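Slide 14.
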Amino acid sequence: MIYDIHHVTTYEYGSPVKFAHCALRLSPIDMPGQTVLETAMTIDPEPAQSVERVCFFGNRVTSITIATEHSDLIVTVDTAIDVDRGPAPQADATAPFEAVREEAFDSASLDKDSPAHFLHPSRYVPRFAPAADYARTSFSPGRPVLEGAIELMRRIRADFKYDTKATQVSTPISEAFQKRRGVCQDFAHIMIAGLRGLGLPAAYVSGYIRTIPPPGKKRLQGADAMHAWVSLWCGAEIGWVDLDPTNSMLIGNDHIVLARGRDYADISPVAGIILGTREQDVDVEVDVIPREETVEA
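Slide 15: predicted structure.
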């Protein structure tokens, strides 16, 4: 499946900003199951300096410096990407979670995909015993690791309510866990905290999911949005498997990976410093359109 993705991020400031230095993580990555065919980024106002690099975890980062006074910042990214993932492994055929835990802690690798980086607390996913206790219910002794993770994912979908007003980016997982409310970022962090609390490596993934309209209805422009989910290491033989607790599903060809890291702090879409007002409004619009729909239109 080839997708055309149109992503517009608009920052409107309460007063003019004289200087901005930002790190943008808005360009999707090549990885098994997806290939970036082309991508283009436009920034208004035009930056005085723009440098692209690849971070430790393999994500594309564009660092920009804007030295002219501006009242808004608009970043537009257009990407064509080919997504073709194979079937997920058979959950009940994966190794017992205790064996995966031991294998992860015995790992001698420190490359970007090593489970060693995703075992321990991170900025947005601290050690949180209630999440570990909640996860433990899904992992009876000897249970296949992916089977337990799928049950945990389904329980989060059933027990937590999607509520865009309940939390903010900075809301700690303890508050979202207590409220049993939040958004995809909260659900991913809670699931990661539970898995890591059991000694299982889990990563945070940001990206997009195609919104499929009801039968007979047209897609709404901007109806698609940025999304977040979890990647679980299931042992060296199988590797990483991605699970979406917000929608209670293993990811397939309707998901597009933008970046992955230990938590949101590693892969926030826009981060940096500005000289000016603290007041700002952020608007994000995303269209994820299968290429055949573009052709038919």
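Speaker note: The longest strand covers residues 2-17.
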